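Mods, move this if it's the wrong board.
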Amino acid sequence: MLPPMDDESPLLRGPGHPLGHASLLAAEPLDRYSQDELTARIAALEAEIARVQAHADKAADHRRLAESIFSSRQHD
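Not the wrong board. Structure tokens:
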């Protein structure tokens, strides 16, 4: 059973595992991949990390802006 959602909880998607689809990648056996395939996989995962980090940064900026707007209204 998943924990209740709140603003700080990640939206978990996927096969019901606490890490969602990332858990499938973490559990996949890597011994069937060549060194070139592993290098390509690392590059793809690093690009995905950068994409997710950029989205997280944008969400954090949006939240800070919203908090500053609402906190300034409470002081008026």
